[in-house]
Amino acid sequence: MRDFYPDEMLRRSFVFDAWTRASRRFGFEQYDACVVETLELLKRKGGEEIVQQIYAFADKSGRELALRPEMTPTLARMIAARHGELAFPVKWFTIAQCFRYERMTKGRRREHYQWNLDIVGEPALTAEVEVLAAAADAMGMMGLTASDVRIRVNHRALLGELLARSGIPADQHPSVFLALDKRDKVDDLTPFLTQAGLDQSAIASVNRLLEVESLDDAAQLLGEDSAAVHALNELFERLSRYDLSSMIQFDISVIRGLGYYTGIVFEAYDTARTGRAIFGGGRYDNLLTEIGGKPTTAVGLGFGDVVIADLLEEKNLFDGCSPSRDVTVGYMTDSERDAAVEVACALRKAGQSVDLATHTEKPKQFFSRADKKGFREAAYIGPDDVAAGSCRLKTMADGEERVMPLIGKSEVSSQK
Ligand code: HAM
Description:
Layout: H1 6-25, E1 29-30, E2 36-38, H2 39-42, H3 49-52, E3 55-58, E4 64-67, H4 72-81, E5 90-99, E6 111-120, H5 126-141, E7 149-155, H6 156-165, H7 173-180, H8 190-195, H9 200-209, H10 215-222, H11 227-240, E8 248-250, E9 264-270, E10 279-283, H12 287-290, E11 298-304, H13 305-314, E12 327-331, H14 337-349, E13 354-356, H15 363-372, E14 377-381, H16 383-388, E15 390-395, E16 401-405
Parallel strand pairs: 1-5, 7-8, 12-13, 12-14
Antiparallel strand pairs: 2-4, 3-4, 5-6, 6-11, 7-9, 9-10, 10-11, 14-15, 15-16
Helix pairs in contact: 1-5
This protein binds histidyl-adenosine monophosphate.
């Protein structure tokens, strides 16, 4: 599990802030829930890896509980509980702490935070488009561009159509999808596809399908009337209105390792496609019914804080992260403390972030601390300043000074 020291917290806040601003900019409302869920809600049949990674436990009265590995079942539970009262489509976001008992490698932790952005109750493609545009907006706020990241998109129905053409019956598709999603983790998919019920020739067809490189190739295989091809073409066309064409591409190998997706699916990677996905999501129109709710369509994504932090680090995009403290105020002896308090209070009232020394300091000690901690300005008050009725605020970068009166509380001009 993770500890966040202040410098790590700064980076985390940088990411959380971009997520929150993008959510609000796109009109999403924030929600939250307890990290402990009933195991029953989180368990699903079908052999998804995520279910095997759940931290589960019994409480003192023997109830089976778990730390959530993802937010989506909780979201579905919350929507189902208030279905009658909500005005659909619902656009909600949260930053959820999640736990998965994963083998820890680069980008995989046992605890991570995940930005979830979901539109529930909207069957139209606009939902996919807005969710993807919001995620791209958040990445833009972090300084990432189309040369850094690529959002790869596929459609479960397109794969389904291709599998059906290869003679693989629909009831085998869900387990084939989950097997195919392991492609980056294993060298040979054959044992997993065999376990999913495919024979040698079906496995050979599936491997050939994964070689389809473009949506045009897929369209040629499936013919003009494929609904999935239409939907994907439409998605690309609509995203071009947001200037996102260079960030989006079709990728037949994007399948997603969660069983509940029913339509368009997507994952974002760095352009070199190294490591784990930055975010992933898609349309999941049946989950609400599966947990006992009314049939409700849904689209959403999960965007973790671990993979993105590695990428921002690599691209030096955390460089601007520093504590937002404007001024530090110090004093020589206890006799100057009240004057220092007066200065600190006046500056705080003027909207500045002010650190007030907790004890007396010698000037050298004070200015060296001010320098190390990266304050923009420093005011050091000694007996001479109190006698003169004013103090000097020194700009740490260039040594420039401005004078501030000590008596009278209204004369501080807010800087910046
Ligand atoms: P997911 O693909 O399992 O989807 O996770 C989404 C993102 O969370 C991943 O792309 C990755 O950035 C991050 N993530 C997941 N597990 C870990 C881990 N162990 N360590 C670090 N980062 C991790 C879901 O969870 C879906 N519920 C997303 C969703 C929301 N679909 C619709 N709405």
